[in-house]
Amino acid sequence: MTPRTVVIVDDDPLWAETLADALQSRGWQAYWAAGPERLWELARRVPLTAVLLDVNLAGHDGLELLDQLHRLMPELPVVMMSASWLPRLEQEALSLGARWTWEKGPAQFDHLVQELSLLAASGLPALPPPGPPWPPLCLPAPDEPAAEV
What we know:
alpha/beta, Rossmann fold, two-stranded antiparallel ribbon, 7 strands, about 20% strand
């Protein structure tokens, strides 16, 4: 069985750790990326099942990152996260290729895991790391293995 692997892209380490713990307790392998550089590093080295991407990243536009992800890896499911969704933002995220949107909150963990599990069970394999071209904000990948949250 292919491991179910997700990258949590969020600039809040406490939230990312909480979410990673919830996913790992339900059988998912979870990695944390505070921003695009770490996401691209992980995407090059780890077969991914999905990405959980925050709309509001410090210094970065989550929707722009979604657009880049969708252009480079169109088959990779991306779930956009936000503490509160405005209808315009939610529509834009879906139009840029997000599979769905998710409102952050511990009460919503079970729903998120259920949806991710359905996605994994749908037969979509974890995507192997793609080859170039990488976005200009990509950094060279170091040789050490990616750290789990």
